[in-house]
Amino acid sequence: MTVIESVVPAEAAERKMPPGVLVEGPVVDAKFRDSYISFVIMIGGSIAALVWAFWQGIGWVEVSVFAGTFALSTVGIGFMHRYFVHRSFRCGPVMRTLFAAIATMAVQGSILKWVSNHRRHHLHSDKPGDVHSPYYDGDGNPYVTFAKGMMHAQGGWVWDQATTDAEYYAKDILADPIAMFFTRTRWYWYALSAVIIPGAIGYAFGGVHTMTGCILFSGLFRSYLMTMATSLVNSVCHSDGRYGYRRFDLDDGTTNEFVTTILTFGEGLHNNHHRFPRDAYISHAWYEIDINGLIILGLGKLGLVQDIFSAGSRTLRSGDPDGGKRPVADTEAMV
Ligand SMILES: [Zn+2]
Ligand SMILES: [Zn+2]
């Protein structure tokens, strides 16, 4: 036994991925298949969109559809994050269906995949095992240069072999028939968002020419740009204060950053968010503009969502010596 143990280098043993990470098998294959298909279509469409914009020009219809669908997708990712991942409020099946639809239509992967990845990210934030850290690669090795780490956090992580196990991180999603319906039918929702809806609006307002511009510019190019905007949260907002500022001195590189906060409707207040992961409204000052949080508070006032988790809810939690004001791992905070 001693002999067998001694042949495993200590360094390799340290780099072993934490539980809940798969490095081979059908789940890993399916992840690569999904990533290749969606990125080839989005990047191919984006190049075609830019060529079309210079060659044919784009008008107010294309720009309006771009802005409208970008905003709707951004709100969709807000619900993906604050409802499906962190359970910062409760709602009935009708609202859950609506949130699941617009979250999936952001074309950032299925609810099951997004939720699993994000919970692993919080549990191992900027440590080996994080899904998309600027400091460690997918195998848990530290980055030598900050620039390389930033590229990994901004998009390179999608091509890592390491894949999050939904059975470990997202049992609640696996048990939710609504979330799983949208997970299974994700490609239809991607098509609706990136092709069919922009195309139909374009055709209605300007025939085949505007339809083509809308599909390329307001559908495919918008999906890609929107994904890149969300990814700023993984890179810029984990830059350890190189960009933006840190309100709370946490054991990770999380940062609040203004431009990302505007582009993502509040998700860029990421240092605040890692400090209090379950809060529905993550602004801590008048200049921290959290549009997604305000939308949730507004839906609460209308009675469409319930039990919104807030700073007040934290102090009511029993059993926490500091009133719950400590970083809580999502797997613990979500139930
Ligand atoms: Zn983070
Ligand atoms: Zn989060």
From TrEMBL:
Subcellular location as annotated: Membrane
Disordered: region residues: 316-335
Alphabetized UniProt keyword annotations: Fatty acid metabolism, Iron, Lipid metabolism, Membrane, Oxidoreductase, Transmembrane, Transmembrane helix
Keyword check for Kinase: no
Compositional bias per record (Basic and acidic residues), positions renumbered to this chain: 317-329
A Gene Ontology term for the protein's cellular component: membrane
Entry's Gene Ontology BP terms: fatty acid metabolic process
Protein name, UniProt field: Acyl-CoA desaturase
Domain Fatty acid desaturase: 64-283
Record's bilayer topology term: Multi-pass membrane protein
Segments crossing the lipid bilayer: 36-58, 64-85, 187-220
Organism: Bradyrhizobium canariense
Classification via CDD domains: Delta9-FADS-like (cd03505)
PANTHER family in alphabetical order: ACYL-COA DESATURASE, BLL4393 PROTEIN
Family to which this protein belongs: Belongs to the fatty acid desaturase type 2 family.
The organism's taxonomic lineage, starting at the top: Bacteria, Pseudomonadati, Pseudomonadota, Alphaproteobacteria, Hyphomicrobiales
